Amino acid sequence: MNVLIVTATHLEITSKKIEKKSILVTGLGMVNTAINLCRELMENDYDLVINMGIAGSFSEELKNGDVVEVVEDSFSEIGFEDSIGFSPFVDLNVKTRHVNNPKTNLRKVTAITVNTVHGNKESIQQVTRRLNPDIESMEGAAVFRVCQDFQIPCIQIRSISNKVEIRNKDNWNMDLAIKRLNIEVEKVIDDLCDLN
């Protein structure tokens, strides 16, 4: 099975086993991810795309270092504002929500993909009321969308590095999140791809 590992930064891959696979480092954000993943999939054939990375958690049940599989991801900022607040484009047939079939034994979560990570109490409350996500990233829904268009199966695996709250880097644990992310992605590769 020809597997492509997609990640936003080199920092998120520490496993020698994963480093031996085909890897695409897209850069941060949904635009970089979409452009670079489209280019890669036009030039090479893959049987599976695994998007791995860290994420912030809205859920009190998810702690730093927990590793999850995203089964639903939304572009949370596509829409418009008026005097009442934010609304999605429901009448323009704009696809902002992507659902993916579960493929692992990891905990299943819903996510939002954002251009600006949340760190303001009011905006956190607004997006939580509107979409009630478990986690947020800056790339996930873009991977789902591109893979859907190219008809390539994909998996999104995220490890929690921080709680989504008023920005406080002292509460983050990137090292733990990245360590556990790599351990779990190795297991996913072994389980799904039978690659040892």
What is CATH's topology name? Rossmann fold
User: Based on CA inertia axes, which overall geometry fits?
Assistant: globular
Strand ordering within the main sheet: 3-9-8-4-10
Class computed from helices, strands and strand pairing: alpha/beta
- What share of residues is helical? 25-40%
Fourth-level CATH superfamily: Nucleoside phosphorylase domain
Radius of gyration: 16 Å
Order of helices and strands: EHEHEEEEEEHEHEH
DSSP strand count:
10
CATH class: Alpha Beta
Q: What is the overall number of helices?
A: 5
Described by strand count, sense and barrel closure, the largest sheet is: 5 strands, mixed, barrel
How does CATH name the architecture?
3-Layer(aba) Sandwich
Uncertain spans, ≥5 residues at pLDDT below 50?
none
What is the total number of structural domains?
Answer: 1
Distance between the termini: 12 Å
Considering the chains and any ligands shown, give keywords for the structure.
196 residues, alpha/beta, Rossmann fold, five-stranded mixed beta barrel, two-stranded antiparallel sheet, 5 helices, 31% helix
Describe the structure.
- With 196 residues, the chain is of the alpha/beta class.
- The protein has a single domain (3-191), classed as Rossmann fold (3-Layer(aba) Sandwich), CATH 3.40.50.1580.
- 31% of the residues lie in helices and 28% in strands.
- It has five helices and ten strands; from the N terminus they run βαβαββββββαβαβα.
- A five-stranded mixed barrel has the order 3-9-8-4-10.
- α2 (30-43) packs parallel to α4 (140-150).
- The two termini are 12 Å apart.
